[in-house]
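Following up on my earlier thread - several people asked me to post the actual chain instead of describing it. Fair enough. Here it is, all 165 residues.
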Amino acid sequence: MIFFGRIIKARGIKGEIVLDPSPRVNDEDAAPGRHLSLRSEKHEFEKEILASRRFKGQLLMRLRDVDSLAAALKLVGYDVYGDVSPRGSEGPSLVGYDVWDTAGARWGRVAAVHDKGLNPLLEVVSDERHGPISIPLVSEIIKEVDAQGKKILIDPPAGLRELNP
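Reply from S.P.:
Thanks for posting it. Predicted structure:
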């Protein structure tokens, strides 16, 4: 299971929830009939998706047994986890791709992709450094993935290299 996002508010009298989704979640992942794990510090339970749709970058969902605004409000703040659909069309693994920044500097080669938190991380190994560099796999940083050339173009925020030991 991966992090799907966080329930940020309730919407409507029929108990729709508003999810701030992880970038990894697509519409197929949030299809009716799929099961999600909702977690807080004290509680964890499963809910089935009855309906979902995108709206302004967020996911609006109706969940089984959440049929009122009061019931939906009780879920605000819960973290949501679920299984993602196979990504056959997503392309090959990014391991082995060379990473370059927009200024033309080579950062290294992707050694692994870690997908255990809110955002997946690229673990990049450089010939010039002893330790790996972790780069968040988010659209604000990853600007282009060239599958044919096995290259990733990044626009890293200032200080990203220095954050890594």
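The CA atoms of residues 7 and 75 lie 7 Å apart. That should answer part of your original question.
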